[in-house]
Specification:
binds 2-amino-2-deoxy-6-O-phosphono-alpha-D-glucopyranose; globular; three-stranded antiparallel β-sheet; Rossmann fold; 243 residues; alpha/beta; 17% strand; 7 helices
Length: 243
């Protein structure tokens, strides 16, 4: 696991967008794994800037998002479909047919999971996966206790995750109780992973990720067994680790 420690959120976002732009320039049909949450918001703005300045084209790229809530419609302003359209897809030239997210609003969730996993495999697997991290070590929506061997599946969201995400909804009662997420196995099959972590409140999470035991109780810890992971952390998040 390589660590890049930078001064602040802006620099973290810039380092990450540089890595993604370089990847797509090297391999125009790259398969990108994308994430939601507050952490990558500036990263997406910088990708849009790079596209508008003519530094990169996403015409041949393919994307797969990590996760989506179950039971809210795709155009609900809190769905991850909506987030990705607003924050990225509406502003770049990645064709809609090449942008994939799990379908959380469907009759048969298991079929949706199996189809998503198959689609990732058909695309040749993810070349470069972006990750954030939850306070409890979740990646995607793989909550503590998720077996490392799981592929794309339906999860019950941890109460702490629903509370953390309630800030985006009118009340906690509106936060979905389930989601579809790529599994840890799916994520670990990516060729390269970039994890972004920012802010003092994530310092304990980064400490556990970098120095705690590798355990299903802290899902992100498995990343230490992946051969090609870059952690980009700002100083505040990195304040408890020895790097
Ligand atoms: C969310 C997402 C994750 C994200 C994490 C951290 O619930 N499912 O993919 O990385 O929580 O979010 P944030 O960046 O807002 O702290």
């Amino acid at each position: 696991m390589d660590f890049i420690i930078v001064d602040n959120y802006e620099e973290m976002s810039k380092k990450a967008s540089d890595i993604f732009v370089e990847k797509v320039n090297q391999k125009p049909d790259a398969v990108l794994g994308l994430a939601t949450g507050s952490t990558p918001e500036r990263f997406y703005e910088l990708l849009i800037d790079a596209y508008k300045q003519g530094d990169v084209s996403f015409e041949h790229a393919i994307s797969f998002n990590l996760d989506e809530y179950v039971g809210i419609s795709l155009d609900n302003s809190q769905s991850y479909h909506h987030y990705m359209n607003e924050k990225l897809f509406n502003h770049i030239n990645l064709p809609a047919a090449q942008a994939n997210l799990p379908l959380g609003e469907t009759e048969d969730l298991q079929v949706a999971c199996d189809n998503y996993e198959a689609k990732i495999k058909d695309a040749g697997g993810v070349d470069l996966q972006l990750l954030g991290i939850g306070l409890n070590g979740h990646i995607g929506f793989n909550e503590p206790g998720t077996p490392f061997e799981q592929e794309t599946h339906v999860v019950d969201l941890a109460p702490s995750t629903r509370e953390a995400n309630a800030r985006f909804f009118d009340s906690i009662d509106e936060v979905p109780t389930k989601a579809i997420t790529m599994g840890i196995k799916t994520i670990m099959q990516s060729e390269q992973i970039v994890l972004l972590i920012s802010g003092e409140k994530k310092a304990d999470a980064l400490y556990q990720l970098a120095e705690g035991p590798i355990t299903e109780d802290f899902p992100a810890s498995i990343l230490r067994e992946h051969p090609n992971v870059i952690i980009i952390a700002d100083k505040a998040a990195a304040s408890k680790i020895n790097k």
